[in-house]
Every structure is written in C-alpha cells, then in structure tokens.
Amino acid sequence: MRRLWMRWALLVVFVVALAVVFVNLGEWQLRRLAERENRNATTISNEQAPVRPYEQVFDRVIVDADQWQRVTATGTFDGDHQFVVRNRNNGEDRGYVVVTPLRTATGSVLVDRGFIQVVPGTGIPAAGPPPPAGEVRVLGYVRRNELGRQGAVSPVNGSVRLINSDALAPAVGYPVANGFISAIEVSPGQEGGFVPVAVPELTSGPHFWYAMQWFMFAGIGILGIVVFIRSDLRDRRTAREKAAAEAEGERQRTPADT
C-alpha cells in the first residue's frame, strides 16, 4: 500500500503542476482577449472621431491609443527621399507600399501613400511610382512606428521592411514627426495603382476558445487523477478477492485430500 501512496503522491504533484501551467495559459489567453477587445474599441472610437489636422496629433510619440485617428495634412511630397516597403499584405493581396516624406508648413511627416499589389511570379520594384508634384492634401490614418530588428527598419538602397520614422529619418536627411500617416486619399490623385491599406479586422479572435481548451486540459488532468486512483483501488480489491477465493478453495480441498 505504501508504494501505491508514493505513486499517487507523485502523480498528484505532476498533474497539479501541469494544471497550474494550463490555467496560467488560459488566463493569458483571456488577457489577450481583453487587450484585443480594448484595441478594437479604441480603433472604432478613433475611426469615428472627427478628422483632425495632423499637427494636433503628431506633436508627440505616437502610441497604440493614437492609431486609426483620421488626420489631414497639406504640403509637398519629397520624391527624392521615398522608400519601398517590401513584402506587405493588404487583406489577401501581396505587394508593397511606398513611403514618402510630406513637407508641410509646420514640419515633415512620413506618408504611406498606399498599397500596390504584385502579380504572382513578379518581383518588387526597386523604386515606387513618383508622387504627385506640387501641393497635395492627404487624408489618412495615424499609425505608430513599426518595431523590429535593426535590419528590418534600416533602409538599404531605398528599400525597407518596416516603417519606423526614427530609423528612416537619417536617410531622409531632416527631422520627421514620430509615426506616420497611412493615406486614405491623396488630392490631387496619384498614379501607380495605389489602394489604401485596410484597417485591421475587428474580431475577438480565437483567444476565448483557446482559453477554454487550456482550462479543459486542466480539468481533464484533475479528473484523470481520480480515475487513476480508483483504477488502482479496484485492481487492489480484485487482487485481494482473488487471493481470498484461492485461499478458500485451497482450504476446502485440504480436508478431502487427507
């Protein structure tokens, strides 16, 4: 019986440790769900808010809470310092975007001028279409800097993987505002097949069901302890009953043989 108690104790310790891990993973998924729902609410609120001049927003470091506000900016594009941002997706389409500095009366800001789809089997060009000449008006979404390793944010020959104003400013050669504008509309219009970058899908994602799965795994583990111990007890009881029956049979045969 002592060996059974040792085995049960080790089993309980192992399963409880796993259950704690599973519960923590479930709670982590619920936290991610809450974060996503908060982000969705912020996106909806910002997108529905009145359009603001870009100077009223791009006067500080742009953070997640600023994203997807609509702003307008008027100025001239600096086509000599634009960048091709490669390997981008817009919905199910694959292609690239072109980022060009916009020089305004109050400063400069990077503008993602839009997405250009690449036909499968063709490469991404080394240079994007030139911007419209003269004064333009840009209506677009506020975006924070994209973060990644140094090789992804630092431009090489006018090409880059992520849009980060801090990393692109040295290549531009003059100060630019933190973050960037993702263009919805440029007036006068621009050529080159640009389409606006889509707003992220506002869904809750799979986090709730992932959390339920982790909690279910924890419950299955706890239930498994009960099933395992009951099985051991049943096997032990069956073994005792078999031994008692054999002993009784042996006792009954002994007088007849004598």
From TrEMBL:
Protein name: SURF1-like protein
Keyword annotations of the record: Cell membrane, Membrane, Transmembrane, Transmembrane helix
Pfam families (UniProt xref): SURF1
Subcellular locations according to the entry: Cell membrane; Membrane
Species: Microlunatus aurantiacus
Lineage: Bacteria, Bacillati, Actinomycetota, Actinomycetes, Propionibacteriales
Membrane-spanning segments: 208-229
Primary location group: membrane
InterPro entries recorded: Surf1/Shy1 (IPR002994), Surf1/Surf4 (IPR045214)
PANTHER family named in the record: SURFEIT LOCUS PROTEIN, SURFEIT LOCUS PROTEIN 1
Sequence similarity: Belongs to the SURF1 family.
